[in-house]
Design a protein that fits this description.
Blueprint (H helix, E strand, L loop, with lengths): L7 H14 L6 H15 L5 E7 L5 H9 L2 E8 L13 E2 L12 E7 L8 H11 E13 L4 H15 L12 H11 L2 E14 L2 H10 L16 H15 L6 E13 L18 H4 L8
Parallel strand pairs: 1-2, 1-4, 2-3, 4-5
Antiparallel strand pairs: 5-7, 6-7
Helix pairs in contact: 2-3, 4-6, 5-8
Length: about 290
């Protein structure tokens, strides 16, 4: 049974709101991820006929793929058709957990800061694998690892102190060591997973929380506590955050781990490992050393 971790309807609503109300600069993280994905794509020696760019709430991912010159056509897909004012329409409205693409219909799929919100990540990866043609490429970046660990710790401590219990407020994130295995399970060849750990700094914890809301990345957990958070609890969480994670200048740190993955749909032209026992040279000879039998 697929766990119901995220409230997908709430996530869609917050993305629409982020389009309409986000202040300038609130999408800096998505722009950063888009630039990184474009650089990774630039190292690929081949070009693709049809690319599908999954990610929002802006068109940064689709724009980066289109401007890379690696795809003859780029289709933007996301969980909404348009914001309240019609801005940033996606060409294909999707749910990342039920992709409406035929098997073998795309040559390249690129996703940025989107798939960390799916309830069934292994299933989503399998669907992406199926929609790609042989020798098709999948590139994605997730928020993962210990992202926002400072915020998680502060809320847990504040709620335990004030109410004697805790409510989930920061989403669980996938680990880089797990994603390589998930790519293999989904049927991808040559899987690669790596991570970059960033430290962001904010004037106060409230500035961090406001920026997360502006990105449409507020608490989307299905088991979150309903109702408004009292000002006393919020103030206490901010105080604990400030006490534990402030720099000498008073600004607070926020950890962000970006996990990047890539995988190819198997094809006969791809490199394959040699069969066991087929080596032409002993390892000891290659290292110019003496082999000592056990």
């Amino acid at each position: 049974m697929i766990p119901h971790v995220f409230d997908r309807s709430l996530l869609k609503a917050r993305r629409r709101k982020a389009i309409a109300e986000a202040p300038a600069g609130a999408d800096f993280l998505l722009d950063l991820v888009a630039d990184d994905l474009a650089e990774r794509l630039a190292t690929v020696s081949r070009t693709f006929d049809l690319a599908v760019a999954i990610g929002g709430p802006t068109d940064a991912i689709a724009r980066a793929v289109a401007q890379s010159g690696k795809a003859a056509r780029t289709v933007r897909a996301d969980v909404f058709a348009a914001g309240p004012d019609g801005a940033h329409p996606a060409e294909v409205v999707i749910d990342d957990e039920a992709l409406p693409f035929a098997d073998g219909s795309a040559d390249l799929v690129v996703s940025g800061l989107s798939l960390q919100w799916v309830n069934d990540l292994p299933g989503a990866l399998i669907q992406i694998r199926r929609m790609l043609k042989p020798d098709g490429l999948f590139l994605a970046t997730f928020a993962g690892g210990d992202s926002l660990t400072e915020l998680r710790q502060a809320w847990l401590a504040a709620e335990a102190e004030r109410s004697g219990g805790v409510s989930p407020r920061v989403a669980p994130f996938a680990e880089v060591r797990d994603l390589g295995g998930l790519l293999q399970r989904a049927g991808f060849a040559l899987p690669v997973a790596d991570q970059d750990r960033l430290t962001l700094r904010y004037r106060t914890p409230f500035h961090l929380m406001r920026e997360l809301a502006a990105m449409g990345a507020g608490n989307p957990l299905a088991e979150r506590r309903r109702g408004l958070t009292g000002p006393g609890l919020m103030a206490r969480a901010a105080d604990l955050y400030q006490e534990a994670h402030a720099d000498p200048d008073g600004r607070v740190r926020a950890t962000l781990t970006l996990v990047s993955v890539s995988g190819w749909v198997p094809h006969e032209s791809q490199q394959k490992p040699l069969k066991p026992g087929s080596a032409k040279m002993r390892l000891a000879d290659a290292l110019k050393t003496t082999e000592n039998p056990l």
